[in-house]
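=== RUN LOG ===
request id: a7f3
mode: sequence -> structure
chains: 1
length: 105
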Amino acid sequence: MRQKARHLEPEAQVDETLNRYRESIDNIDAALVFMLAERFKVTQAVGEYKATHDLPPADPGREERQITRLRQLALDAKLDPDFTEKFLRFIIDEVIRHHEQLREG
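=== RESULT ===
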């Protein structure tokens, strides 16, 4: 493929490179969606367990431990830990909302 790219005009090489990057991004986005779907399947089961055992929908201690752990993972991965925390908090808030709905019946 690289040999083919050498014979292309400079704009075509850029477009081909950009297309390869975009294909990778598309694959990563698809993986993220499937991972989130799997995560929410598990948190749904947790919510059902909590509802049947009269446990609170939220666990602030666990949430803080998770945020601390994932902030460190973000640093290790050279990803902005503030962004990581915002992303995780968004997910946690959605999970808690689901758990509250399950508890209410």
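=== NOTES ===
The first helix runs from residue 2 to 6.
The CA atoms of residues 36 and 91 lie 9 Å apart.
=== END ===
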